[in-house]
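Dissemination and training. As part of the outreach component of the grant, students in the summer workshop were shown how a complex can be specified as a set of sequence lines and then modelled as a single object. The example used during the hands-on session is reproduced here so that future cohorts can follow it. Participants entered these lines:
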Amino acid sequence: MVEAAAFYILAALILGFGALVITARSTVHSVLFLVADFLCVAALYVTLQAEFLAVIQVMVYAGGIVVLYLFVVMLVNLKRPPEAHSDPRRLGRLGVVMAAAVLAELVAIFAVGWAKPAGGEGALSPKNVEQIGRALYTDYLIPFELASILLLVAMIGAIILAKREL
Amino acid sequence: MITTTHYMMLSAALFTLGVVGVLTRRNIIIVFMSIELMLNAVNINLIAFSYYLQSAIGQVFAVFIIVVAAAEAAVGLGIILSFYRNKETVNIDEMSLLRW
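and obtained this result:
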């Protein structure tokens, strides 16, 4: 009962903030709604026994990525709103139609196949940080190292792109 | 009773919100934020299945997705900045140099 209430409240908050992110007039407001959305998603992770992911979500998304967005919003001049220039060839309605098509497709997937995956093999212990760490450093060691190389490349690439001249 | 399907519905709705943002907004910063929303929707799915299957592997992949999202945000925002330096705009309609 409590679980259901928590889920519905969090789902409403996530979708509400998500809608505000894409409809807000001011870009700064959009970024702030994005922070709220990420925090609600982190709370949802806690209800799914993924406390480690919740902490990572708050630290990396709400703490790191959003700060990057705020810096970019400060660095670019939004006095002339991007919506001012309107391209006559732009098909804005078509975008809504395509998004509706995506939603219809997803609903069709739910309606047709209530795919029941096979039951779990292991048990997710309440303290699953140890399980995640073990998986990361044994079975998924090479993807883990590749992810760190990806981060390094992205860091160097971002510095080179943002630098005025080399 | 909240089943995995509920989480999948939530994830699908959030993903669709991201698609609407990408397809309808003209401010490229908001387009990037919509992409972050879509990546979050995928993460909700992965973690819901991790809970359903009682396996930590779903959470491992969610960590990888967060890594990719961070890399994408860093490089994408660098591109936005260098583009803004050239054309003084963040409107995707004016980024038409490669348009046929």
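The longest helix of chain A spans residues 51-75. Students were then asked to discuss how this feature might be tested experimentally.
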